[in-house]
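Dear Dr. L.,

I hope this message finds you well. Following up on our conversation about the binding site, I have prepared a predicted three-dimensional model of the protein together with zinc ion. For your records, I am including the exact sequence and ligand specification that went into the calculation, followed by the structure tokens. Please feel free to forward this to your student if that is useful.
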Amino acid sequence: MVYSLRQQVLTEINPVMLTRIRVALQSRDALRRAVDFLIAAILFRLPPLLRSALFRGERHECPLCGAHLSGFLVLHRPFFRWCPVCRSLQRHRVSWLFIRQHILSVHPIRRMLHIAPEEALRQAFQRLPDIEYVSMDLYAADVLVRADVGWLPFASHAFDFIYCSHVLEHIPNDRAAMRELQRVLRPGGVALVLVPVWGKPTFEDPGVTDPVERERLFGQFDHVRWYGFDIVDRLTDSGFAVRVIRAGDVADVRAINRFGLDQADVLFGCTKPAR
Ligand SMILES: [Zn+2]
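The resulting structure of the complex is given below.
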């Protein structure tokens, strides 16, 4: 177990991970971050069946993996609620509920692009019948296509659904990325876009490149901006019709609590107008 954990940690160490560790060590809550990192490193390497047994209960339910849970796990950030079985967060669970209720209920997804894939959602998408699933990331090794979201190596109108969550806030030229998402989507198709959003207008400063300063200004060491709700204007300028979706659009108050959703999470449902 210890040997396996050490091997896993060593294979995950890369320049991005080293920067993450350096920034965490310089933060005011360095000790809590280190403890959370260790808990996550150990817990999420236990077999899913064992995690499911450890957290079994009837108070909560994960709509992504179907686990019945005594509670969700608070790790890494005080507002994060992890499913201890599939490792989904609030935003993944609300996305899945929206996809089930408002996309799959209308028509099946034939060909989809999943950018920077989250494991819990990857598994859920791949379980859908007759789907051609394409995963893409600039850095990760376990994807079908390695590419930059600003230069998508796909034909126009190639996908009927795109899931792109917590990517654009890392991209200096986010408008180019939005135009690419629009280009590769078929008319009538939907791109579900998520970014961290605050209550003020979008704030960005390309001159800020120091990871510690980026974390202070933009909330994470590798973010290049904080988005405001004016992201809707950028998405609209890129050719999308945009719908703002919240947890209340897919679940009532009781279900929001049961599924561990967050009223503050926002999804941008971006439809490419039919020609
Ligand atoms: Zn789950």
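In brief: The mean pLDDT is 90.

With kind regards,
A. P.
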